Amino acid sequence: MNTNDQQQPVSDTASPGTGDASGKGKNGSGWIILLFFVIGLIGSLAGGWLFFPDLLYSEKQQPIDFNHKLHMGVVYEGCQSCHYFREDGSFSGIPDLYSCSGCHQYPQGTNPEEKKFIEEYVRPNKAVPWLVYSEQPDCVFFSHAAHVKGADMKCQTCHGKMGQTTHARPYQENRLTGYSRDIWGYNIARLGEPKYGLRMKMNDCAECHKKRTGHKGACFQCHQ
Amino acid sequence: MKIDRRSFISLGVGVVAGTTLTPVPWKLMDDISIWTQNWPWTPVPKEGADTYKTSVCTLCPGGCGIQVRKIMDRAVKIDGLPEHPINRGTLCPLGLSGLQFLYGPSRVKAPMKRVGKRGEGKWQEISWDEAVSAVTKKLKELREKEKPHSVAWVAGTDKGTVPRLIGRFLTAYGSPNFIRPPSVHDAYELAVYLMQGQEGAVGFDIENADHVLSFGTGLLQGWGAPVRMLNIYGEQHDSRKIVQIETRLSDTAAKADQWVPINPGTEGALALGIAHVMIKESLYDQSFINQSVFGFEDWTDDHGTRHIGFKTLVREDYSPETVAEKTGVPKATIEKLARRFARADKPIAISGRGEGLLPGSLSECMAVHSLNALVGNINKPGGVSVTSEPEYAKWPEVNIDMTASRGMQQPRVDGAGGSKYPNARYLLHRLPEVINSAKGESPVQALFVSDANPLYTLPNTKATKAAFDRIPFLVSFSSFMDETASHSDYILPNHVFLERYEDVPTPSASVQPIIGLAKPVVRPVYNTRHVGDVVLQVAKSLGSFVEKAFPWKDYQGYLKSALKDYWDQLEEKGFVKVKNAKDFPWANRFNTATGKFEFYPSARNQPSKNDKKALPNFSPVPIEGKPEQYPLVLMPYDAMRLTSGDVGNPPFMTKTIDDTVLKGQTVFVEINPATARKIGASEGERATVATPRGRAKVRLHLFEGIAPGVIAMPKGFGHTAYSKYLAGKGVNFNDLIGPISDPLSGLNTAWGIRAKIDRA
Fold it and tell me: Is residue A160 situated within a structural domain?
């Protein structure tokens, strides 16, 4: 078992503190073990932090490259022109085809996306399969009225500057859950300011509620 | 250097250590948990716009307002309607399970004609035209034979437009045999008719009462409008005391302020014992008794004959000592009950067992109702009132031909209103006996059944089946493959309540007259048709006088014309409170011959000259079976989580039943540990319960809350039809009991039967 001595110092400098490796350092394999450990450690750290997020999400394009900024310029009531509250207080969410076709029965300009919209959706009377960045699971009850009307919050506070975008950004879909990456947030560690609007996991709701109302809220407020 | 096994282990350790420091495990854990919620086979409503539709639940006589959430065309959830005065936004487990009736597997999907033997389950789907013409053909044939009176129709209720339509049809056709299933309201309606001269349903203003003395009524087990009662129990506060007198520690008793255990079947005696104490101690309402009642004191009639009054009867025959002996309730308790009841501001006494499907003894009902008279709490806020049915628009008179006229003059097949039982209106439980004892052909040649399931709900299932086998033509309008439907010749499936229009008049036991409107919340899921429309179509194809009685195009048109003044409000809100209801126009005024509350009912057809029989009295109902052969007494009980009427228990509710009530397919019989010790039985043991009417395999559940010598069993199990989610579970209590007709009213009074337990 007695092998070459010149590896002894290397092993000593590399890991003065690892008792196990240095204890068996006489045989010279200690530093290799450590090396493999470090390779494993660094490799998995790199994989987990750098490649995993890209693996987890697939990227999809919206069916129509919608220009929010352009539309904001021609409507009178800002976001609420299309994303309005119904009479009963419920929120309409993404406008249905009928809301769009009111203006876009015929092309208003020369934009190829508009042409595509009219030909592929308006004429055949087919709903546009928009990919919703803020879509929540069925078990979550969220009232826009309570937030926008009740707490007087602005759309931007949660949804970011959506109204000023000129292109529909790609939709990143979680391969496992099918929900948008916006919910978890673009930063996989959920650190720093979010890129587009607020993150929308349950803890984000609770944190904001804690901050603004002094209480995280009860289960059945949202999980009705 | 040498790379060996240990190096790779080290690599692995490094990967594991590194990975825990990355988001991979934590993020994946979160994502996987969400992924498991979105498995494709998990039932999730389709994406789409949601809407709410208001309607009224018709699964029980409670008439709760509901709102149904829909995603596109599919109903996904039923909730209580917040503004409805009965349920105030809440709902019972049955109402919440309502969608299982709409989409469940036991529905009849199209009109069916039997092709195999009866009950064999071989059906042929037919068109609606064929179904209507088959019914018409049979009805025509019976009219040609001058036998229109051999047609009978069993309908779930006699209130509202559908029963009125059926009644009108039978009148025009020539049959007096409209029958509805029995309920405790039969006894109450008869009692207030005799004692107050008033016709209508009896309502109990429990919300405003401060003392409720219940003689075995299942206030919390489905009685009246169950959601209303749940709310009242939920809001129970110090100012309202509920006292439950019952043989068994039921849910109602367990949640009451006081439970008074009593010997089974002696509730009427206790009521009179309480009356005795109240009279002896002058605790009754002197002004009401002095001014507004008849028959309290002794009196002399026009012929100069002396009659004893209620006071004398009670003082002579129902002293606390005698009553204590009969009822097993100690003398001191009887006195305390009487004093507390009398001293309360707004006391109410309620009669009737369980959820109220058993009419019970008329004299017991009258005895209990006498207590309400003694405290003068009749037709007042916080008291017991008679509510007349809301008035609908008047329809043109029916012109009938000679055949119909002759048919209408025939006595009713169930004997109600005849010489023996002149005051009874419907006696469905007598029908099997009448048919089985008839010589020659059955007096019922064609039976129609809608919103009812007599083959399950009538006592003595075996005899009922034998009787139905003698009826040559049996038509069910059930939406579900229930016991009666599966045993019939034709099934003409009705829409379920979420698919049809129907008015729902005043909820059971409510003081406030309300009309609710059940509306189609979804389009009919299957090829079903409203029973009202079928009646109109059959009338049309019968032609001549029958056709002329129905000047309406369809049921909806007829309903609209009936509810003329209320229609707009009903369409919008779903219910209407009928005006003047809270004014109690009848306070202290009665429609009897004397214009007073009559302890001695002058309207009653008196078969005996015995005053003590004419006054509210206690005559024990003899139950079947010899004590030597059957040492125990078997009683049924009702539960909120188990329907026992014509509506089969939905799977959601069956899931909630404790495994001391049903385990696997076997039902438990409750037995007192002392009784169990005598026969050497232990908890959970399998046994056979035998009664003079039948035998059943059960398990035993030792329960201190049941009196020694008495055993109890839930009602609502033992279905043989519907779907695999209901059929074959437990035993139908009606297999084990037969009916006992009240000698006074003819109503079924069989509250129990003698039984024995054979250990397996």
Answer: yes
pLDDT number for residue B285: 93
If pLDDT is split at 50, 70 and 90, which confidence band does A20 have? very low
Measure CB to CB from residue B22 to each of A32, A33, A45 and give the nearest one.
A45
Residues of chain A found within 8 Å of residue B2, distances taken between Cβ atoms: 28-29, 32
- Confidence at residue B236, expressed as pLDDT on a 0 to 100 scale: 64
Residues of chain B with pLDDT under 50: 581-582, 607
In a domain, residue A46? The reply is no
The pair of three-digit structure tokens given for residue B296, joined into one six-digit string: 């309290």
Percentage of residues in chain B with pLDDT exceeding 70?
A: 97
Tell me, yes or no, whether A142 lies in a domain: yes
Residue-level pLDDT at A12: 44
pLDDT of residue B379: 87
ipTM tops 0.85: no
Query: How does DSSP classify residue B495?
Result: P
Q: What is the extent of the structural domain holding A217?
A: 133-221
**pLDDT reported for residue B159:** 87
Contact A49 B13 (CB under 8 A): no
Check A7 against B10: CB less than 8 A apart.
Answer: no
Cα distances from B701 to residues B642, B689, B698, B712, in angstroms, run 18, 13, 10, 10
pLDDT for residue B432:
94
Q: Closest residue of B to A42, CA-based? A: B18
Q: What is the pLDDT of residue A3?
A: 44
Residue whose entry in the numeric block shows the structure tokens 């019970």? B360
Residue of chain B whose Cα is closest to the Cα of A138: B44
**Neighbouring residues of A184: CB distance < 8 A, sequence distance ≥ 6:** A174, A190, A199, A201, B27, B30
What mean pLDDT is predicted for residues A101-125?
90
Mean pLDDT of the region A93-105: 88
Q: Which two tokens stand for residue B396?
A: 């043109």
The Cα–Cα gap between B689 and B709 comes to 14
Q: B56 - beta bridge partners? A: B65
Which pLDDT score, from 0 to 100, does residue B1 have?
61
Q: Quote the tokens at residue B515.
A: 């009309």
Contacts of A178 in chain B (CB under 8 A): 38
Distance of CA B273 to the CA centre of its chain: 29
Specify burial of residue B337 (Cβ count, 10 A radius: 0-12, 13-18, 19+): buried
Residue B500's pLDDT is what? 94
pLDDT band at A14 (very low <50, low <70, confident <90, very high): very low
A71 neighbors B47 (Cβ within 8 angstroms): no
Do the domain assignments include residue A63? Answer: no
Q: How far is CA A46 from CA A34, A174, B15, B16, B253, in A?
A: 18, 20, 10, 13, 68
Contacts of A176 in chain B (CB under 8 A): 28, 31-32, 34-35
DSSP B184-229: HHHHHHHHHHHHH---SEEEE-GGG-SEEEEEEE-TTTT-SSHHHH
- Mean pLDDT of all residues in chain B? 91
pLDDT level of residue A4 (50, 70, 90 thresholds): very low
Pairing of the two strands B632-637 and B753-759: antiparallel
Indicate whether A10 pLDDT > 50.
no
B-chain residues near A95 (CB < 8 A) = none
Q: What are phi and psi of B448, to 5 degrees?
A: -110, 135
* pLDDT for res B604: 66
Cα angle B623-B627-B628, degrees, rounded to a multiple of 5: 155
Q: How far apart, in whole angstroms, are the C-alpha atoms of residue B36 and residue A127?
A: 28
Three-class secondary structure of residue B331 per DSSP: helix
A18, exposed or middle or buried, with CB in 10 Å at 0-12, 13-18, 19+? middle
Contact A113, A64 (CB under 8 A): yes
Angle at B105 (CA atoms; ends B100, B108), nearest 5 degrees? 105
Total domain count, chain A: 1
Nearest C-alpha neighbor of B410 from the set B140, B175, B178: B175
